[in-house]
Specification:
single chain, mainly alpha, ABC transporter involved in vitamin B12 uptake, BtuC, two-stranded antiparallel ribbon, 16 helices, about 75% helix, ABC_transp_permease
Length: about 375
């Protein structure tokens, strides 16, 4: 019974967080003189107005699923991988570089090689903080935050000074990858009215299943979760916490790198110099937290975030400024961040109901005893 109530609480916390985010966003609109009903109506109308917009929702959700999965794996091992942005950026640059370097090769060769290159680049970027944490006890939070900056400027250096001039369009911008290197398929584009939807979302769905299987049905997944719960007990049981730390960070970076691959070969088709860390890394963390790290939760959260981002642009047609439209997602993240408070409120409500039920039972029992005494007399 307690397990059921705990599962119900875990399911309700993200739902309540989303609802509270929408409510507080609506209150902000009211406080600034805008109609929240019209604003939200415009948001969802814009997000679902055509097959093209639905395709764009899938486009936005694909990279978020990968970065969310990457964060989930590291978090299961007890680590807070804040370097998803840098790792995804490595995957983006590496995949574009490989694809542009093979302009005449068949798609069956270019795409797998580009995907592998992006995944390897993300894993390599995550291996550094993983090794430092495993063998020197450094804080992975600090190291990954700093590496986001290092990888950002290193990626920009590669585009500006290392890539061959033949694959550069303008200063800091590569050429568009040919059809032999893109994740887009004509039948999928036509299905969604010409949107940028690509096989990246399908790939993300496959990895949702693969990561679930890894974490729930394999020995490695059991070791990752065990180290995350108690590394000392895991060591006592014969598991190598150092090896598990490094492997979990490698998997986390690999998944983030794949998010960058989808961003590059699926969404944009090229790479251009970035002025700051790409948003899919930090948004992926929020998606994972909102989805409780589970595959189904991550899928639904990624779709929600993509809907909010796409629909937020449509709120401006209802007269709502983009700043207010974009405030809903941070508010949801805020309530996800204080999910302990939301969870405690649910627990208190549950305890209150149980106590009330007990009082009712005691009252009925007392009345029965009195009635029995009266019958005896």
């Amino acid at each position: 019974m307690n397990d059921r109530s705990g599962q119900l609480s875990n399911a309700l916390v993200p739902i309540i967080s989303v609802v509270l985010g929408f409510i507080l966003g609506g209150l902000l609109m009211l406080a600034t003189g805008y109609n929240p009903l019209l604003g939200y109506q415009a948001m969802f109308r814009s997000a679902f107005q055509s097959s093209i917009s639905i395709g764009e929702i899938l486009v936005g959700a694909g990279p978020l699923i990968f970065t969310a999965l990457g964060f989930s794996v590291a978090n299961s091992a007890g680590f807070f991988n804040v370097g998803l942005s840098g790792q995804a950026l490595c995957g983006w640059v590496a995949s574009i570089w490989v694809a542009l370097s093979m302009p005449d090769s068949p798609k069956a060769v270019v795409v797998p090689l580009a995907i592998l290159a992006g995944a390897a680049a993300g894993a390599l970027a995550a291996a550094i903080p993983g090794l430092l944490r495993a063998y020197f006890g450094t804080s992975e939070v600090i190291v990954t935050i700093m590496m986001n900056y290092v990888l950002l400027y290193f990626a920009n250096h590669i585009v500006n000074n290392v890539m061959a001039p033949t694959i550069i369009s303008n200063k800091g911008v590569t050429k568009i990858v040919g059809t032999n290197g893109l994740l887009r398929e004509e039948w999928l584009t036509n299905l969604f009215g010409g949107s940028r939807v690509n096989m990246g979302f399908v790939l993300a769905l496959i990895f949702l299943v693969l990561v679930w299987f890894l974490m729930k049905r394999t020995t490695l997944g059991f070791e990752i979760r065990s180290v995350g719960i108690n590394p000392f007990a895991s060591e006592y049981a014969g598991m190598s916490s150092r090896r598990t730390i490094v492997i979990s960070m490698l998997i986390s970076g690999l998944l983030a790198g794949l998010g960058g691959v989808v961003q590059g070969l699926g969404t944009f088709g090229n790479y251009f110099v970035q002025g700051s860390s790409i948003s899919i890394g930090f948004d992926g963390m929020a998606v994972s937290l909102l989805g409780n790290g589970g595959s189904v939760g991550i899928l639904l959260s990624a779709l929600l975030f993509s809907i909010l981002k796409l629909g937020g642009q449509g709120m401006q047609f209802a007269g709502v400024p983009s700043e207010l439209a974009n405030s809903v997602i941070p508010l949801i993240i805020f309530f996800v961040g204080i999910n302990y408070v939301v969870g405690r409120a649910l627990d208190k409500a549950g305890e209150h109901k149980k106590e009330k039920k007990k009082r009712e039972v005691r009252t009925v029992q007392s009345l029965n005893h009195k009635q029995e005494g009266a019958d005896l007399e």
